[in-house]
Amino acid sequence: MYVEAMVGFDVREIQSNFAEMWTPDRQALYLLRTDLDKPLSTDDMVWLRVFRNVKVDLPTWVWEPVLVSARIDLPAWVGPRHDTWENLKQMQAFMVEHRAELSPMRYWTIAITQCVSPEEVAAWYPIVPPDVAPEWTFLGYDVSDYFLLSGLMNCGYQTEDGDLKGQWAHKLNRYHLFDKMDDALAFAQFSDGRVKEHAPFFAYGIYVIDRY
Predict the structure, then answer these.
(1) Residue 134, preceding bond cis, omega within 30 degrees?
(2) Is residue 173 packed enough to be buried (19+ CB in 10 Å), middle (13-18) or exposed (0-12)?
(3) Which one of 30, 42, 91, 195 is most buried, by most CB atoms within 10 A?
């Protein structure tokens, strides 16, 4: 039995469209289906965050087409997992302070959970709040490594991987995410063998908190 433990909170852009960010070659290499609204992911190279880590930033080609005019420098510490915030209220207060810098960009605030055993939850790093609120909107499950790099949308598929589209594409929703935890957990296990250099992979839930 798995439960969802809170990993952290983030702010991601929602104004770019699928065709703008994903060339046909990129779609063919990284996606299992292409009839999508837009790929959404834990991975900030797939779904861009509005924050910028001044010490370790993404390559310019990733963010410049969308966020060239508006990115906010992160504070020195926000949380333990790949620049996601450990405290939702602190992130929301920070966004209120800097909201004018993002106008008129459209963005969502999100929560990311990890599917873990009850025993792991007992020793989990304290995130505030620790649980998903009933009013948040579930987007789906991604499959990513510990540092939130997506094995579902950012580890290229090769010919030798076989008929992955036939096995998995019908289980993905319009955001290229799994609707069912069991499917995400199965794909995580599959990814451990397919992309050994990033193993182990985990199933992560993504939830929308607010839309701006």
Answers:
(1) no
(2) middle
(3) 42
CA distances from 28 to 89, 132, 152, 174, 205 (A): 39, 34, 13, 16, 25
Tokens of 12: 């991601």
Cα–Cα distance for residue pair 208/10, rounded to 1 Å:
10
Length of the chain, please? Answer: 212
Q: How many CB atoms lie within 10 A of CB 3?
A: 14
CB 113 within 8 A of CB 6: yes
In this structure, what token pair is assigned to residue 36? 């999508």
What is the edge-to-edge ordering of all strands in the sheet holding 137-144? 3-13, 107-116, 202-211, 137-144
Tokens 């950012």 identify what position? Answer: 154
Q: How many domains, the chain?
A: 1
For 106-161, what is each residue's pLDDT tens digit?
A: 999 999 999 999 999 999 999 999 999 999 999 999 999 999 999 999 999 987 66
Q: How many CB atoms lie within 10 A of CB 180?
A: 13
Burial 88-124 (b: 16+ CB within 10 A, else e): beebbebbeeeeeebeebebbbbbbbbbbeeeeeeee
Of 83, 66, 69, 55, the residue nearest 21 (C-alpha): 66
